[in-house]
Amino acid sequence: MAQLWGGRFTKETDQKVYDFNASISFDKRLYRQDIQGSMAHVKMLAKQEILTEEERDQILSGLASILEDVENGKLEITSQYEDIHSFVEANLIQRVGEAGKKLHTGRSRNDQVALDMRLYIRDEVQATDELLARLLKVLLEIMEKHTDTYMPGFTHLQKAQPVTLAHHIGAYFEMFRRDRERLADLYKRMNYCPLGAGALAGTTYPLDRKLTAELLKFTAPTRNSMDSVSDRDYVVDFLSALCLVMMHLSRFSEEIILWNSNEYQFLELDDAYSTGSSIMPQKKNPDIAELVRGKTGRVYGDLMGLLTTMKGIPLAYNKDMQEDKEGVFDAIDTVQNCLELFTGMMDTVVFHPEAMEASAKRGFTNATDVADYLVNKGVPFRDAHGISGRLVLRCIEKNAALDDLSLEEFREESPVFDSDIYQAISMKNCVDKRLTIGAPGKRAMEEEIAQSRSYLEKAGLFS
């Protein structure tokens, strides 16, 4: 097939060169954005009297029919075409004749692909944000049910102080909330229209770039034509944001894997989100969480690939930039799939509050509260710390929790202990007296949950 740029050439491109150069195998997913951008461009050309109204209508009708036929399967995007732009233009010319040849007036493939990618990334930013919002809704519902589910909080993977499941899940709620904020910032920063920048130096045609930006719902046109066609910062930004989403999902997955183990037994995964063993019939494996954890490296690789591609490219457009697509398409597909499956897994998980509370007690997470009790009785903190440590050692020797010690055993370490020690170190009291903003105490958590619910209601998730 003759290329759109073939006038300068006197012989056909070598087939291997053609195949190496072609991008249709992956940029075909930009067909909707390519047609959307072409429609706005044609409307602007007619408004500027570069095209007649009749030509505009013919082209718009042809583009609409191509879009409809692709989406209903009547028209296939094949390797016969070099890229998505040549596919659309060739089919348009076939359908509407001479008018179709005017589609590319005042436009280069450089600003065209820059536009397509911005439109595509903009759509996928919104789609990813919606998936994050759904996950936040599920996490909030877990938080609301588990303000009285006591569990150990950890540092260094060692049991540290008692918290609640609501508080622990709330930490991930904050991570994914920040992910949404990151996407919102990216959306604002990238929402400028490169169409009309031409190959790199604009055009002599009297284009109305503000009109095309408005038609495509951009904030404004981009400000420098060379930067317009060579900028891929927004793709790097998006990949970076997706890497952080995956990092958060991976950290969460690691905890789900640990909590699902026989040693913890904090939760049970639904059968729909687990698999068995081909040889060990007792196994119920957390494969979804493990795959999410594993796929994180894949998304990191997509980001590093693009950063490496872009690091030495001079202005303006270079063919290297064709390599921006496959990595970002892979990352988008991976992240969105992980978010959807992880949300389903969390929506069906069954938690075991008794096992969580027992683990908190066996881990001496109330040892700090023993020391605080002594301090409130007038014992210097350094002495109180030592007494509490000796009581923990006594418990380890007896294979008991602090709550299991008799009052006499407490008094053997310090005479200031009284029967109120048991109330002071109960999981409920240890947690509920922590009431500073962001702490796990019930009143503090209820305020946090109310604010989180209000945040999601504004996103329309509880309407």
What does this structure look like?
With 463 residues, the chain is mainly α. The protein is built from 19 helices and six strands. It has helices at residues 15-21, 24-27, 31-47, 53-71, 84-96, 109-145, 165-190, 209-215, 225-230, 233-260, 287-310, 324-348, 353-362, 367-376, 381-398, 407-413, 421-424, 427-432, 442-458, and strands spanning 150-155, 158-164, 192-193, 220-221, 267-268, 350-351. The chain has a two-stranded antiparallel ribbon with strand order 1-2. The protein has a two-stranded parallel ribbon with strand order 3-4. The protein has a two-stranded antiparallel ribbon with strand order 5-6. Strand 1 and strand 2 form a beta hairpin. Helix 3 packs antiparallel against helix 4 and helix 14 packs across helix 15 (381-398). The longest helix is centred in the N-terminal third of the chain and has 37 residues, at 109-145. It is elongated and about 100 Å long. The two termini are 53 Å apart.
The overall pLDDT average reads 95
Strand order of the largest sheet: 1-2
Assess the beta-strand content as a share of residues.
under 5%
**Helix and strand run:** HHHHHHEEHEHEHHEHHEHHHHHHH
- What does the overall shape look like? elongated
What share of the residues lie within helices? 55-70%
Notable traits:
single chain; 463 residues; mainly alpha; two-stranded antiparallel sheet; two-stranded parallel ribbon; 19 helices; 6 strands; 5% strand; elongated
Question: Strands, helices and their partners?
Answer:
Layout: H1 15-21, H2 24-27, H3 31-47, H4 53-71, H5 84-96, H6 109-145, E1 150-155, E2 158-164, H7 165-190, E3 192-193, H8 209-215, E4 220-221, H9 225-230, H10 233-260, E5 267-268, H11 287-310, H12 324-348, E6 350-351, H13 353-362, H14 367-376, H15 381-398, H16 407-413, H17 421-424, H18 427-432, H19 442-458
Parallel strand pairs: 3-4
Antiparallel strand pairs: 1-2, 5-6
